[in-house]
Amino acid sequence: MTDFSQMKVGKKKAFFHPNSPKMASLMLPGVMPPPPQSVDYTTRVTSWPMFDNDTLGNCTVAAIGHLIQLYSSYTKPAPLVMSNANIINTYSDVGGYVSGDSSTDNGAVEQDVLNYWMNHGVPVNDIVNKITGFAKINVAKKTELQYALYWFGGAYIGIDLPLAWQSTSNWEMPSNLMGANAPGSWGGHAIPVVAYDQDYLTVITWGEKVQLSWAAYESFVDESWAVVDALWANQQGKCPANNFDWSQLLADMSLIQQGVV
């Protein structure tokens, strides 16, 4: 049986910049083909690193490490995998963690991580990876997440974990939201979504694939982001050039950059 009880969580309360673009507003009007009934971008990834998330609350950075690994598994001869040192240094820059000082291991805000990824970039192998931008997904709109995953190769979400999920890798909607089933009773956690079908999302956490039901996604997730990374956007058929307002995304990102170091 899976035992996640000793693993670390570290996503702070969701924050939304007033200029954060919304996925819905960037989807151009008109007839769009429905998203596929299922998408699975895990087939070229043989293993997912822990990234020290078993000992540190660095999930917000570990999640972007997993996304970079996924993107590059499809677009590079060999996947780009952040080192633990790169993960920890990024966590220190964004979350204020001081290596060896547990009192500073307090997690981070997802949008702070996204801003850092966009403005400063994160080191991986011999390059610095920067994203083009990101957009807020409406958790109540299933198709927004489906399009984001299909188009961009993954999504970056924050979830208020219940204690009841510590011993299972199938995160189902409980019959009630009290006690050990209460959202956040375990803590906030950042994870990437890497696949979906009609019943479940597949997320990566603590080096494992976990199934998250759509009902649980809608009830426990407090933030969900589409991430645009050039590592993925050069994939033919995956880049939504005809259905996505790139100029508006870039304008929105510029507004955020003006107020973010």
Would you kindly provide a written description of the structure presented here, covering whatever features stand out?
This protein is an alpha+beta fold. It is built from 8 helices and 10 strands. The strands form 2 sheets. Strands 1, 4, 5, 6, 7, 8, 9 and 10 form an 8-stranded mixed β-sheet that branches. A two-stranded antiparallel sheet has the order 2-3. The model has no long low-confidence stretch (mean pLDDT 92).
Output the keywords:
single chain; about 260 residues; alpha+beta; 8-stranded mixed sheet; two-stranded antiparallel sheet; 8 helices; about 30% helix; globular
Compact overview of the structure:
The protein has helices spanning 23-26, 59-75, 84-95, 110-119, 142-152, 214-220, 230-233, 246-258, and strands at residues 39-40, 122-124, 127-129, 131-136, 155-161, 170-171, 187-196, 200-205, 208-213, 221-229. It is an alpha+beta fold and 261 residues long.
